[in-house]
Amino acid sequence: MKKCSLWLEKILPPPRGNFMIRADLDKGYRRFSRGLSLILTVLVLVPMSIIAIVSRYQQITIFIFCALVAVLVVFQLSEAITGHLREAGLKREQFLARAEQPNKLASIGRLAAGVAHEINNPLAIINQQAGLIQDIHEMSPDFPHKDMVEESLAGIQNSVQRCKIITHRLLGFAHQTKVKMEEVDINALLHEAVDFLAEEASYNRIAMEFILDEDIQRPWSDHGELLQIFLNIIGNAIDALAERGGDGRITLSSQQVAPEIVRICIADNGPGMTAEVQQHIFDPFFTTKETGRGTGLGLSIVYGLIRNLGGTVNVVSVKGKGTEFELDLPVHQEEE
Ligand SMILES: Nc1ncnc2c1ncn2[C@@H]1O[C@H](COP(=O)(O)OP(=O)(O)O)[C@@H](O)[C@H]1O
Ligand SMILES: [Mg+2]
């Protein structure tokens, strides 16, 4: 399968999600211990063989020789068995973490839907009452500070609209809004998402780079949900780069990696994440941002939405180097 052609690929093995760093440490350990046993074999067996051939005390030498061979065989075997056990343990850990994620999302989804429904009713009443006040206000003669009342009413109505968008998103997260499936032009959608955040990016002196394959297929997907996914990931990249004060770069790429799969990569050269943070980024309410700035819902929403669209999300992040999100989207949805 083709890989993302971005800079992270040059310094890292193929992305394996949150467990990459652990797996690489294990690989390094195994390589070291294999090397060590090879050196031991050469250092012990070669001189022993020579001694066995030339020595007069052949029986004792052959005995020591056999004993050493046995020790080395046991060492190699135990190393192989521990390696297998270690690998099995890692796989089990990965499986459990992945299996746990949908459960967390399902419970947070139910909570979100409950809250959204509860809030929708009083919101509708506030909106209705504000409309009524506005009608009376428009009909009433001039009085002192009439314009201030008008401003306040507009403020209330704007806030109600914002709350409605939030509750709609929450319901979307809980999959309780209607998904509108259509052919989606991924490249155009990436531009649309960047346009939304262009002002914020240029304020933080962040450059946006596109590496788009014009020949990719148009997946059968939901335009609104994909836009939300891209906005959440790009928004996080902007947050991560905001502190940098220049030289920040976000690279967006698209490619057809298989006949039925379109891959979208969103990479930044920000501060990256530790393995510890990476383990939790898809957990609802996990945030490293200060109170008031982060809700910790962005990436759990991304995870829920992309799964709902039949796709997958993977992250590769290196502390001090940057982060890359890789989204694989099926061109056609599997039949339910
Ligand atoms: N591009 C990125 N670079 C560094 N850290 C990131 C990036 N994207 C996400 N994160 C980490 O993942 C956490 C969770 O992100 P998210 O779910 O969107 O919640 P929030 O943005 O509200 O904190 C962030 O607080 C941050 O620590
Ligand atoms: Mg976020």
Explained architecture:
It comes from Candidatus Electrothrix marina. InterPro entries: HATPase_C_sf (IPR036890), HATPase_dom (IPR003594), His_kinase_dom (IPR005467), HisK_dim/P_dom (IPR003661), HisK_dim/P_sf (IPR036097), Sig_transdc_His_kin-like_C (IPR004358). The chain crosses the membrane at residues 35-54, 60-82. Its EC number is 2.7.13.3. Pfam families: HATPase_c (PF02518), HisKA (PF00512). The protein is of the alpha+beta class and 336 residues long. The chain has three domains: 18-101; 104-173, Helix Hairpins (Orthogonal Bundle); 181-330, Histidine kinase-like ATPase, C-terminal domain (Heat Shock Protein 90). The protein has eight helices and seven strands, in the order ααααβαββαββααββ. The protein has helices spanning 7-11, 20-54, 58-139, 146-173, 186-203, 223-242, 275-280, 298-308; strands spanning 181-183, 206-212, 220-222, 248-258, 261-268, 312-318, 322-330. The chain has a five-stranded mixed β-sheet, with helices on one face. A two-stranded antiparallel ribbon has the order 1-3. β6 and β7 (322-330) form a beta hairpin. α3 (58-139) packs antiparallel against α4, α5 (186-203) runs parallel beside α6 (223-242) and α6 (223-242) runs antiparallel to α8. The longest helix is centred in the N-terminal third of the chain and has 82 residues, at 58-139. It is elongated. The two termini are 26 Å apart. 23% of the residues are buried. The model is unreliable at 1-24 (pLDDT under 50). Bound molecules: adenosine-5'-diphosphate and magnesium ion.
